[in-house]
Amino acid sequence: MDYTNPYAKERLTGRGYFLLTGATQTVDLGNIEMFKVDFGIKRKEHFAARRGVLSMDRYDAFSSQALWTITLDEFVGPILAYAWGGTVNANFSQTSGTAATFNFTYALTMLGSALDIGKYGLFNASLTTPAGKVEGYSADYVIDRGAGKIYFPLSSTLVAGASVVTYSCPALTYDSVTALTILNRNGSLELHGEDDSGSGKGAAADAVPPSRYVWTIPCILSCDTSGEFKPDDYRKYALACTATAPMTVKRLQ
Question: In terms of residue numbers, what domain contains 77?
């Protein structure tokens, strides 16, 4: 490939596949929005001394510690443990309910606080005992239906005594991870750099251009932050891939 070849220029997206030590199947890391590598070079200055003047004559690199930073923006079951640095639990399941009840004893000390109803995604929910109470932040109670909580505003006219919330709820399944229990995962990362050129594309109808780059990186994979939750942007998190042995770089000609 010469300098005038259009494929000498690079504008790449990424895919990543991590093989945990001892595993036989890789984990697809999902959409990679950005990936970069810092070689982690350390250098040593050497000075020549002549007539009271030091002049640096060498600046030698003597070590490297390659660190890849990989920004991901998809959250699916197989990689949640990597995003949260944890262990995978059994799924949390909520059974559906119709006209179910939550019984509690109201006390005046509950003003300005909330109680956990114990289910998520409520509908047809209301305070049925005592009767005639009005829902609203300037009224007697508020049910946070998504979170499954009942809140008692300071304006509430509820009196102490037995109370009942009647509600329905859907069947739900949640992934579950105990976070920050596995900070380092040893294995090998195969990172692909893809472009939109047709170079190397085969003749078959379903053929696509092959990966421009393929890096094979014996590494430790970890996650320093789970990213930001912002309503005006897609959430992202970054995996840190620390090379534990020399990586192999393959580039399509």
Answer: 10-46+60-89+176-251
